[in-house]
Structures
1.
Amino acid sequence: MMQTFFFLMLGGYAFGALSAAVSGRSASGRWLTALGAMIGGGAGIALGGQVLLSGTSFTQVFPNLLPLAGGLALRLDPLGAVFLLVIGLGAVPAALYGVGYTAIYADGRASLPGLGVMFNLFLLTMSLVTLADNILTFLFMWEGMSLTSYFLVLTEANAPAADGSTAQAGVWYAVMTHTGLALLLAAFVLLGAGGSGSFAELRSAAAALPATTRNVIFLLALLGFGSKAGVIPLHVWLPRAHPAAPSHVSALMSGVMIKLGIYGLLRMALDLLGGGPAWWGALVLALGAISALLGVLYALMEHDLKRLLAYHSVENIGIILIGVGAGLVFHSYGMMTLAVLGFIGGLYHTINHASFKGLLFLGAGAVLHATHTRNMEEMGGLIKRMPWTALFFLIGAVAISALPPLNGFVSEWLVFQALLGGFNLPVPEVAALVPVAVGMLALTSGLAAACFVKAFGISFLAIPRSQEAEHAHEAPATMLAGMAILAVACIALGLAPFAVVPLLGRALTGLAGLPATETTFTLGLTVQAPGGFGSVSPTLLALGLLVILGLTPLLLRLLRVNGRLRLGDTWGCGRIGQTPRMEYTATAFAEPLRRVFAELYRPTRELTIDTHPESKYFVQAIAYRSDITPLFEQWLYDPLLRLIRGLARQVRKLQAGSLHLYLAYIAVVLMVLLLAVRWF
């Protein structure tokens, strides 16, 4: 049965890509493209689910492909199955959503066949990353995932209205992803030097490696996988590339692709290397806490709805890394129960983020589809014109804000429980990190809620601020159906942690000596953390909320409250008519936080006041603009780029066009090589 699901997954994605190449421009072609992706994603879910439930691995080898590496070696174990489920969870609704969304490209602004082909190949290569069982297979599929997503980012690069930012985003993404690939290649070369490159061989050889070599491998892997995940300061490509891609692709890149950076880190640090010293986990924990806090702080300043969501991906990757880092720290001290708790919290948040971030990006795409703008300052009042989109976006906003009983609350609660258990660490210097991480995570959660009050309120409530918002329309049925699937997933994952936690524990059992989940959690309608330190029941919380909502009308009737509908004007401070100028703006909402964190933002302000020619006391217009300083670009990447350009100019001088000079180069190199052979 597993083999059937595997070949159905391959066949589905291949059918979708072929359909797009043959008839992608037509409506039927768009449906066939989406159908192939949905079949592939559904088969991936079935394959991953069967591996998780059975606890057995699926293996498949194609010896005639990649023969130098011993063939295309594929093996899906329970850890890989979790991430294959994440890919399927994102693929099915994104493909269905794409049927309606990609109709806007029928005017020729982008190649529909190219988009459909790359979309299916992107899903295929991501899926095969989770099955790779040797170095060459992993790197081959990793590069395929990077190249296909690069072309998807450039979908609208040649559109008539393109301003060059899409092409620039593609350049940033290409540079960062291939830098990460080079680091991963170095890590795998160090780990598998002299062997066949199979993961089984790497596991057995890792224990005999010197401690220094293991540390270097871990650091290379952390940087390589961290660049794909969007960890600060390697995040600079993410807020550029994710908004530039079509919205259903943005949902996959943000909700799914960056999670494969987490998968790679877990595969390397926990599975292949078998764990390491405490500073490995402490470093991951620190990077996670910094990424979570800075990600949400930068998101708060954004008025571009898709860039705001992209920065929240940095934040949520940080939350995942806090759980993973805590797990690595506990594992290094033999505190296996708390290690499992940290890893499960990170994996649970991985699945949850795929659902609510995918939902939010699809909602943002529906808004863009209806208003043709990503600027929240030009929105407003959309809840009346797009009620279903507003409902689904609200569900995603509540979930990402970690409010019960939706899914974000459960996974963040598990991460908090893991951190709170860290007060028992035997080394005071490491234990001191715990209260700092707890405080940063708590602050991050509060700021995330504030940010989505801004995102939902400014975009959907009040009065339309532009003609486009005033004449907005609800999204097509296929787009709404894609959002509905993810909204249901957010609710289900929040209400049933007692079913999800054992599956995630099964994915970890046996990895680097981790115990089974049954020895860690007390499961039922209430999930109880190890040692009875804390317990929670989102299911009972939801039932309580439903009871309260049901009793409220009954109580009003018993109290004989006047139920007649009364209509009245909104109080307007003495003004008769309300205009968009009286609304709160995104800039005004974020201004207090801009002041509080001014040392981080270093804002620049520009105020222009136009007065009447006859008197300065009659103001005609006021224009206010405030920008924040991109610190990482200014302090890290700009100096690095200047250095690279300077070196390139010097190297360029070597290419003088002189044949005699080139012969001299050859002679010098030959002399150096001869001397090296003689001496060494």
2.
Amino acid sequence: MDKLFLQILNMNITAGYVILFVIAARLLLKKAPKIFSYALWSVVLFRLICPFSFESMFSLMPINTQTVPHNIMYSQAPQIHSGIAAIDQAANNSLPAPAVGVSANPLQVWIALGEAVWLFGIAALLIYSAYTAVRLRNKLKPAKRIYDNIYEMDGVKTPFVFGVLKPKIYLPPILSENDRAYIIKHEQVHIKRLDYIIKPFAFLVLCIHWFNPLVWIAFFLMEEDMELSCDESVIKQMGSEIKKSYSASLLSLSTGRRTARGCPLAFGENNTKGRIKNILNYKKPAFWVIIVAIIAVAAICIGLMTDPQERLLTVEDYAKGFIEQEIEAYESSEWNDVKIIDSKITRLEKIASFDNLISSPVEVWRLEYRMKPDDITKAVLPGGMNEVDGWLTEDSSMGKPMLIFSYEGSKVKYLGCTWSGENDFTTLSGQEAALRIFFEGIGLLPNETYSGNHIIVKFPLSTGEICRLFLSQPVVQGDSGIWCVERWMDENGTVYHAAPKTDALTADYYKDLQKQCDDGHKSWLLDPLQVAIEYINDDLGQHTYLDELVPQYSVKVEDFMKTPESH
């Protein structure tokens, strides 16, 4: 329900702008036939019922169509993003932030209250409309059928159409033959254009968005344009010579109390003054006016129905965003008393790319940058950071930031950051291992490099600590496949990935070892315990003997990932 309510709010914000635009466009189309103004309201209806759209370079939308984030209730710093800085700043300053020690976010309470009021309003309007429709239906039972779907009834003061599945025209008995012809033609145009369906549907949409005053204005203006365009259609079909008598009939009917007043399923004569004025001033539009109006309405509809194209962010854009986050973290530190007044990228270089790690291509970019404080003498230099010509370097104890990106077609997607000091980025295998660690950490890869057979080998360090190796067969499964150590765990449960010392891709490296073994060389790679001893002694620099190893065969990665205490 929360997600639905927030989506309704977003649709209201978007539709509010569209309504204002359509109202302005109606003034520009004042000389054009009213059918064009009536058609414009379809854009408002689209924005009020459709939670999504498509992007276009011709979009006239200046705002973000997802102004209110769906997770705003749980955010530590709730913010809206309309795309208009002044609105965002004013609204965000008034949004309540979570209070320490309070179980519920204040924004959650307000949204829950808003949902309750919203649902109550919908129920009230639907109940009222159903009540008035039933009451009017009962009142019309004595009506006398004249012909087709046209009925006459005493007590009806003004003509109207009622019904959805089988719409009927109800007339007062006092109409003259000429007046009856005009009025029946008017109501028949309504039925032919399916206005008897459009209006109830528009009212249903109004019930959903009842809390927005602009939607009420749009509904009433749509009704007005519906009637005016109907009048123009009658004149077009019956000739301009009827304008005076048609206006006189409307004027005579306007003195009666509308029988269908308050019922959204019925509609009849309203805005008599505006209709008469429009009828008397109506002239057959010139051909060029029609063409211009068609082009204008089409352009407005496309512009208001579509969302602006999202600007594709580049690697440099994401790098600047990363720097801004680092600056914010630096300025908010308790030990810091300076402000950063400038920053610059000094190096942004792609150092690796892989196509076979995850479902999309991956790149690693090395970033170096500088930050300029307002007072260098007061700047605190945390571990690894230095000062160069009044600028602070970005160095940290973890090394340089390595930004990781994937690609969806031509669109760059920023996945996160790792650090050069945490992994070996000097070789392809080291870069691949670093990325695998990163992807496993965010759940894009499983906690095993190779599927198939696995063996866990426990071994002691010289300190007495008991550690474990996780061995797999990287190329061929079974007795003819070589073994490798893909990761190991210390006594504290910390897992370390084992990357082979090679500048080739890991897969190519192991394929070459498998071929050598198939050719009769390095047959010791077929023995997992020999591989384990080799790794412990050479890679870990420990002196362990074969009889100190405790192997566990036919295991799964879940067995290895358990902490030592759980064994």
3.
Amino acid sequence: MTDHPRKITRALLSVSDKSGLIEFARALAAHGVDLVSTGGTAKAIAAAGLKVSDVSNLTGFPEMMDGRVKTLHPKVHGGLLAIRDNAEHAKAMKDHGIAPIDLLVVNLYPFEATVAKGAAYDDCIENIDIGGPAMIRAAAKNHDDVAVVVEPADYQSVLDELATNNGATTLTLRKRLAAKAYARTAAYDAAISNWFADQLKIGTPDFRTIGGHLIQSLRYGENPHQAAAFYRTPDARPGVTTARQPQGKELSYNNINDTDAAYECIAEFDAKRTAACVIVKHANPCGVAEGDDLLDAYRKALACDSTSAFGGIVALNRTLDAETARAITEIFTEVIVAPDATEEAIAIVAAKKTLRLLLAGSLPDPRAPGLTCKTVAGGLLVQSRDNAVVDDMTLKVVTKRQPTDAELRDLKFAFRVAKHVKSNTIIYAKDLATVGIGAGQMSRVDSARIAARKAQDAADTLKLAEPMTRGSVVASDAFFPFADGMLACIEAGATAVIQPGGSVRDDEVIKAADDAGIAMVLTGVRHFRH
């Protein structure tokens, strides 16, 4: 044999996740491996009728301090760290009665799960593993001689090697397991450090790390020449990471990114208050609407820009029903995402083999705190999530004309949408539906004009006498630096405007609004999205 094989004679197993444990332990015993274990793991193995030694027999010390101290001992760490071919290490092992440990199987106390279920502070602290990470790091460092397993998914690869190599593991496998081991402890420590920062309300800790667990390797990234993968973080936020997929082919990088954008936007619309639909293309909403039911909301959203909706993502805030499913499947759609779906709706979607259906279980809370992160050259930009909601804002009317009740309702709707469109953003809305969206332009005037142009295109498609921007309201994600952007909106037919305000030329902009006889509302909150 080649590849530096190391025979496993003794294994130490200490796991909180006991899935597959007994089958794995039984297979190890069949290869003549001596089993050493701790606490509940030892009890589970013994209860299965397998011979196992408690770690206290190895160390000569009982578990103490409520289990906080049990593996932090030279006879454990010496057995893991000793270099087998080093004569000095071999002598030390002999002199001090240290037996080698050739395989370490540890998965850590469930700290992330404990935090996710909202446990009390002291419970979270007790679920910070100390001995586990210490052993994992020791075994991974000494991977030339020791194999380390940190999740049940790797049990079979170890057993395959033992079967192939007469009870031994290869260096290739041990290196791969060691790399995963260090990544696991890094992600674990990241979860703990970020939790502490949250508890202490430290927005900018001196060190910030983000850890994740692989959900799936992706065929490629934004473009075919880019490698990509999808990871889950400890932030248990409903959405694409929590969703089950009863239908459709594997999600792509762009599918995941766009679906997340759609589902975060639809979360702005309380399902108890209204049915709502968001259609997204290239991470930007191209149609958003509230309706009497999902079908009504979908048709209103689609009317905004049916051209861009082709090949888009449809997000719904209520259980997908059969009638809505039939309507959505009339045009090519990449993904439908909703909290749930009826069995009839699932069957209807299933007829479209390439259409993915994601059921996220619930909607994310738009007010919940959290972090967003993006990379820059040599660094990370980390910020708190934009959890500002228009319903919580103090709206200030600054024009002579007050908005009507219908206009105010549409202004709030438009500002909800503006939060989720790339800056510079202009949203025209009417009757709780977008009728023109301008996104991602360098000039706010350009966004206003593009949105109006798309509204004219939609009117042509629907054979309307005039674009739906006539008599609409408009939302801007940031202030108008000059009156020209707002005047372009008025020219398109807007009768009321909602914007953050805060420009040195606010008075000029307000005067232009008064001169045109429109209403203007300031939120004091900006929604840049880059």
4.
Amino acid sequence: MSLIQNMMLAAIVSLLPARATAGDSEIGDLRQRFLQAEQAISAHRESDYRQLAATLKTYPLYQYLQYQWLKSRLSADDEIRAFLAENGSSRYAGLLKPKWLAYLGEQKRWPDFLRYYQASDESALQCYAGQAYVETGQTPEAFVLARALWLSGKSQPNNCDGLFAAYQASPYFNHDLVWQRFHAALKRDNPALAEYLARFLAADELPRAELWLKLHRQPEAIQTETGWRNQPADAPEMLGHAVERWLERDPGAAARYWDQEKAQQPIAPDRAAFIERQLALALALKHDAQAYPRLSRLETDDESSREWRVRAALNSQDWPNVLTAIARLNSEEKSRDKWRYWQARALAAVGQGEAANRQFVELAKNRSFYGFMAAAKSGQAIDLAHRPLQVAESELQALSNRADFQAANELLVLNRPAEARRQWQFAVAKLEPNLLPVAAKLAQRWRAPALAIATVAKANHWDDVELRFPLEYSREIGQIAQERQLDPAIIYGLIRQESAFDSQADSPAGAKGLMQVMPQTGRQIAADLHDSWGDDDSLFRPELNLKYGAFYFKKLLLQFGGHYALAAAAYNAGANKIKRWLPGSQALPADIWIENIPYKETRGYVASVLMYALIYQQRLQRDSLKLDDLLREVMPG
């Protein structure tokens, strides 16, 4: 290694944050050699890697180093077998094994594959396993896997083609399975797969398949397309499928057509009941006046239909029917803060003020969005009821000495938060339940708030408010709040809900960082602020993410007239959706509007952000942001 490279590595190590082992010269030396070994792996310098690795066997990240070496050398059978044998229960063995199995499958080394294969959720490995069974004469096992993969309705990886070809050529396969997969694909809204499967149908079956595809893509065409009535075996399901698809676009029209046609088709009672429920829920999501009566007529219901029955009555402020709908909840549902709050609101509205106030006073003891609203209704102050976890120093020390936690700590020291999170999750998943609170406090000590929050939730301990609602990034948030003229509590509330202080949070949709800023939004904000834009991963930098997230929220707040609930909803679901969800003709109380947000995620999101903002008001010892500020009446759009 060159002198310059050594100097760069030394500089990196010198800048690493201090933690439990930072003062130990031995661990510091191991850490530098670990970084050098990683460079050797990247540069494919095998001799340097092996020389350095031999000195790192006591280092907490030795297995991680081996994994990095072996995952790009999957032909090294002996080394991989030895690694799996020695570290079988480790996280890195679990990561390496599927990669090696995929390699063995690609190489068609079927006996070796089956020797190490265990049941997997990965379709590609399942297909390799099925092919391995075929090639080794274990056809029953092969075609059990093939049938499940075939009927999943999903498009499968290319390596499944060989298994499917063998399955289709076997006595285990029949033509009806083509139709079963065709219908499974449509149920999964995968018309491309259904269209592909049509090539396996006979010529006289193609019109039937084309009709199914047309009704899937244009469900309203069932009104004018007469061909479905001439398919007696399919007609009931064609009607049901078209109505289910149609209700996503126009539930009112779908409901009217369903009511007109359902008696003319031999639809199974369970299937008819399911469609009735879907129609009623779709109408409720559209705030249609027919929602409450249809929900009330359901012969069988579930939690969702019971709750939307209450919401439909709330949306029209039909307080007697709110009470009737709450009475139809089951006992567990009735005990929840949400429905206790609405019961009290309804009691107050029908003139039972004393009973309502008693319920508000009792509910105000709870640290929840509905408890906080109840406190405001009954004139009480919010009580956070902070009870810190009590953990002995010896317990913290013992846990920090475990190998899995030492590895997580080293990754934190090396400023690799995403890998540290994954290692921490692996370590915590193996813990005895009584040690989860210890782990939460250990993460808090290590200044890893996201890990602490996730772990204390796993422990079902909710009363350590300081642990659950940390004050990280206080300097940056204070400065940004001042620049954007925002209360810092609302920024904290957004961070707590969006990422729970995980600066490396990366959502499936692509949102990144503390405030989960989408890259497209980040690029636009950079242009608005005349900032240079690096790349999407720049949003993982806390200071930039906070700057852009606060800018975007303030923009939404101004767009929605300073209405915090609307701005929070728009931050989650997008401004265009919020415009569509505004009341049609009359203003609505904000609590009713929030309760009737069609998206479950956004409904919970808004309640949580507002609740967290109120908690942070107390944590920051501020009183500038009141519940009335957060819950102004929602005006018609």
